[in-house]
């Protein structure tokens, strides 16, 4: 049972036991963004709540000690991480390091160093021995005079993040373009796709000539290379035309992505609520697959000379699926995290379902639900966070969605026409 006076134990207890952490502003009203909050309210198993300022220091070190043996003065002067830094690190634990640091700067929150991030996340989940990262609690019998004498001694100069500096940086970011931090994979991918179709056109005639020569047993170029294809080839082409991938969205009214707005969202990378007049039983969308979106093996199989327009069918019910397709064509299911959605599915168990299709969940970034996040993670569902008032970020989120989905199809259902 966590002690009311120990912020670290309150936070780890809430995370490991799935207890509620409410964000409160100065008036005590619940808010949904860590930047707006001033206080963290921890709900205890007994039903009581413990409120602490979000900048309350914990016993977690901001940096590991330089030596195994530390004096009492060194321990007392060690820089410590506060509650909001630990909570933000936990909420963004699945982001790549560069994106996590960028999000922390935008939020005005200190970030955990790259060297300590993994150890801090394990500590908050109660995994492993992280005793070197945590400053022990002072003994109850510490003499008050000794404490006063220790405090009177000069302390070593230690860098402690200044909250005023973070607020200033946050204001500066409001007037300038944010710094886009990238990992090595994104940096190598380039800012935009390059079109090498001119190279393909240069060698197209030569390649076609070689193909025709091989088709005729190497006895010269065929004069009938433009003849009508065989009936088997035509049948195979018609068959491929029907192998259009299917995406199922949730029929729940609480879902951010519905049949009323899914077409505009996935085709134009612009989120809007949509209206009932835009709702259709089936939606057909077209997505332009970018160079480099697939693995090397898939690119060799599908051809990577240029971009390719790929069609997808969107629907939201099993009844519609029975009329317009089959489960072998389903590549993605968008879920709100409620099991009732999967009734009458081929796989009604969520864990079995998302072993056979790509699972996706869209939510607002300021809606924090630790229990829902844990459930979706156990189902193998990928979460995407939409910013409520920053529509310019939709494009990067949708680009990440398409890249992830196309890689999943290439690995699990390469026979589809994608």
From TrEMBL:
Q: Which UniProt keywords apply?
A: Nucleus, Transcription
Biological process according to GO: positive regulation of transcription elongation by RNA polymerase II; transcription elongation by RNA polymerase II
UniProt GO cellular component terms: Cdc73/Paf1 complex
* Methyltransferase as UniProt keyword: no
Q: Name residues in a coiled coil.
A: none
Q: Supply the InterPro entries for this chain.
A: Cdc73/Parafibromin (IPR007852), CDC73_C (IPR031336), CDC73_C_sf (IPR038103)
Record GO terms (molecular function): RNA polymerase II complex binding
List each copy of the Cell division control protein 73 C-terminal domain by range: 243-408
Q: State where the protein is found.
A: Nucleus
Any Pfam family matching the protein? CDC73_C
- Which domain of life does the protein's organism represent? Eukaryota
The ranges of region (Disordered) come to 136-155, 215-240
Family, according to the entry, reads as follows:
Belongs to the CDC73 family.
Q: What is this protein called?
A: Cell division control protein 73 C-terminal domain-containing protein
Q: Which organism is it from?
A: Mixia osmundae (strain CBS 9802 / IAM 14324 / JCM 22182 / KY 12970)
């Amino acid at each position: 049972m966590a002690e009311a006076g120990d912020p670290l134990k309150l936070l780890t207890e809430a995370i490991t036991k799935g207890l509620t952490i409410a964000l409160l502003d100065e008036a005590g009203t619940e808010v949904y963004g860590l930047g707006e909050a001033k206080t963290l309210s921890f709900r205890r198993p007994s039903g009581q709540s413990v409120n602490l300022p979000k900048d309350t220091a914990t016993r977690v070190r901001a940096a590991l000690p330089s030596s195994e043996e530390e004096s009492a003065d060194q321990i007392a002067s060690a820089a410590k991480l506060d509650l909001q830094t630990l909570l933000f690190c936990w909420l963004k634990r699945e982001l790549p390091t560069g994106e996590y640091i960028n999000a922390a700067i935008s939020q005005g929150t200190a970030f955990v160093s790259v060297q300590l991030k993994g150890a801090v996340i394990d500590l908050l989940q109660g995994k492993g021995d992280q005793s070197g990262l945590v400053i022990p609690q002072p003994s109850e019998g510490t003499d008050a005079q000794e404490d006063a004498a220790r405090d009177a001694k000069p302390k070593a100069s230690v860098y402690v993040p200044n909250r005023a500096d973070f607020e200033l940086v946050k204001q500066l970011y409001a007037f300038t373009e944010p710094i886009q931090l990238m990992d090595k994979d994104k940096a190598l991918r380039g800012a935009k796709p390059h079109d090498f179709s001119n190279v393909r056109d240069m060698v197209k005639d030569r390649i076609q000539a070689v193909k025709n020569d091989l088709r005729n047993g190497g006895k010269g170029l065929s004069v009938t290379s433009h003849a009508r294809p065989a009936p088997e080839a035509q049948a195979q082409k018609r068959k491929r035309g029907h192998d259009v991938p299917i995406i199922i969205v949730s029929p729940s009214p609480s879902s951010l992505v519905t049949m009323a707005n899914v077409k505009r969202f996935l085709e134009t990378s612009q989120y809007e609520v949509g209206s009932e007049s835009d709702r259709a039983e089936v939606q057909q969308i077209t997505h332009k697959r970018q160079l480099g979106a697939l693995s090397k093996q898939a690119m060799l199989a599908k051809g990577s000379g240029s971009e390719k327009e790929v069609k997808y069918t969107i629907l939201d019910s099993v009844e519609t699926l029975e009329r317009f397709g089959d489960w072998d064509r389903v590549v993605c299911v968008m879920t709100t995290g409620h099991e009732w959605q999967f009734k009458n599915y081929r796989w009604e168990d969520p864990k079995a379902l998302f072993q056979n299709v790509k699972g996706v969940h869209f939510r607002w970034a300021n809606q924090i639900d630790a229990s829902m996040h844990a459930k979706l993670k156990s189902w193998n569902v990928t979460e995407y966070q939409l910013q409520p008032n920053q529509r310019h970020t939709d494009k990067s989120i949708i680009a990440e969605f398409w890249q992830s989905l196309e890689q999943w199809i290439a690995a699990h259902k390469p026979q589809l026409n994608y």
